[in-house]
């Protein structure tokens, strides 16, 4: 049985992590996810990631794989997880994490590789690796510090404590907390994004991601270059014309 389910609804893609009881990220699952990400069609406008069941989004890596790790095999395990999550982060489409339940360790690192995160009020988030005598290895030390700042990231990682969805929202770790279904709220955002110029959304995602890895001046130059490229698209012409004609635009699909 597959540990990663994929479906499409109205050009919104849904990835469900399905590895009971807590959707642990073992190597088999990561390999399945990697292959899936390589083969997702560009016809998908937005991607939503969730966890199966009612207990966890993803409660971490499979700790049963850790006892025999050496320096070499530990580094390879880390690099493999990073490679998969880098693919997710590099998707041209917006990727939304719909978190319900525990998002811990590798599970939170998976969510950090998404563009933004929606969590239910009952969710708990954490990077508890130090409690096992290890550190986050799938990008957590890097993405979390870039998202919430190094001080907060250090406090979070050094303590290994869990925090509530509300606390996560206060520090900018999740963008929205809902009393309802996280997937339904993610779908609402996905539909809103679908109504926009998707070429522009993809370009904006690239500008933000690549710009954060450079100086401000280099980021501004990238923004200007992408802005210029968008100006030559049918979407720019349609968007501007629709605005002037006071009607809804009909943008192209990417």
UniProtKB/TrEMBL annotation:
InterPro entries: ClpP/crotonase-like_dom_sf, Enoyl-CoA_hyd/isom_CS, Enoyl-CoA_hydra/iso, Enoyl-CoA_hydra_C. Transmembrane segments: none annotated. Keywords: Lyase. CDD domains: crotonase-like (cd06558). It comes from the Bacteria. PANTHER family: ENOYL-COA HYDRATASE, MITOCHONDRIAL (PTHR11941:SF54), ENOYL-COA HYDRATASE-RELATED (PTHR11941). Belongs to the enoyl-CoA hydratase/isomerase family. This is Enoyl-CoA hydratase/carnithine racemase.
